[in-house]
Amino acid sequence: MELNMITEKEEEVLEAVWRSGEAKNFAIEAIRKLCVVDFAEADLQELERRGLIVRSADKVMFSREGKITAEGVIRRHRLAEVLVTSILKLKQAEMEEVACKVEHSLLPEVEEAICTLLGHPEVCPDGKPIPRGSCCQKGATGVGRVIVSLHELAPGESGKITYIKPGSHSNLQRLLSVGFHPGVHVTVQRKYPAFCVRLENTEIALDEDLARNVFVWRLGEDNSVGLNLP
């Protein structure tokens, strides 16, 4: 089924079904609470007729085709959330509204370019997983990236923390406890014999695996964005 055959309203319903399913709740009422648009019985009937959902009593689940379609919707929305918070620097209150608008207009090639630009993020700002795309599987680096793993910075390079890949709970808490928060500037001091960074006014030795889970907005010498264009 072609993407342009799905209306924005249908995308929003499929997104709500996905999000409700992440919470293991497939009830129509739960889906309705998560959906940003109102939908009627006729809307569900149409999605069912087109083979995107399967219904049983008051529960809604995806067909195989529906899951593939919804995965694309969720991927675009969550990539848009990373984009608007890390690059456009929008506040949380504005993020959802703008991300909703962006997701409906992303062409596949633009989606891949944005994902590559952002360093193939695995989670959105609220920690929900971002479905992987073909560009992630290929490890594409064809467009210049401004968001990279802290481990990719060379000694002397700086970045502003944009997000931290969850990993284990203990590792995440360890990073947070020493000041690794979104918006904080960090500079790589050296990589050998130990990986050391300067965070604010403190030098910290960091396990390389932890450094790979910290993603930063690469900064130039004047703290402007470094685009690393090919």
Report on this model:
The chain contains nine helices and eight strands. The chain has a six-stranded antiparallel β-sheet with strand order 3-8-4-5-6-7. Strands 1-2 form a two-stranded antiparallel sheet. The protein is elongated and about 60 Å long. A hairpin with a 2-residue loop joins β6 and β7 (202-205). α1 crosses α2 (28-34). The protein has helices at residues 8-22, 28-34, 41-49, 64-86, 92-103, 108-117, 134-138, 169-177, 208-212; strands spanning 53-56, 59-62, 147-149, 158-164, 185-190, 196-199, 202-205, 214-219. The protein is an alpha+beta fold. Helix content is 41%, strand content 17%. The protein folds into three domains: 3-69, Arc Repressor Mutant, subunit A, CATH 1.10.10; 75-138, Arc Repressor Mutant, subunit A; 147-219, Ferrous iron transport protein A (FeoA) (SH3 type barrels, Roll). The two termini are 35 Å apart.
Summary of the model, kept short:
Helix 1 packs across helix 4 and helix 4 (64-86) crosses helix 5.
SSE layout and pairing:
Elements: H1 8-22, H2 28-34, H3 41-49, E1 53-56, E2 59-62, H4 64-86, H5 92-103, H6 108-117, H7 134-138, E3 147-149, E4 158-164, H8 169-177, E5 185-190, E6 196-199, E7 202-205, H9 208-212, E8 214-219
Antiparallel strand pairs: 1-2, 3-8, 4-5, 4-8, 5-6, 6-7
Helix pairs in contact: 1-2, 1-4, 4-5
Mean pLDDT: 82
Say which CATH homologous superfamily of the largest domain is assigned.
Ferrous iron transport protein A (FeoA)
Query: What is the class of the largest domain in the CATH system?
Result: Mainly Beta
The dominant shape is elongated
Which CATH architecture of the largest domain? Roll
Distance between the termini: 35 Å
Please name the CATH topology of the largest domain: SH3 type barrels
Radius of gyration (CA) equals 20 Å
Order of helices and strands: HHHEEHHHHEEHEEEHE
What kind of assembly state do the chains in view correspond to? single chain
Number of discrete helical segments = 9
As for the number of domains, it is 3
* Class by SSE composition: alpha+beta
Strand order of the largest sheet: 3-8-4-5-6-7
Estimate the helix proportion, in percent: 40-55%
What percent strand? 15-25%
Major sheet characteristics: 6 strands, antiparallel
- Total strands: the figure is 8
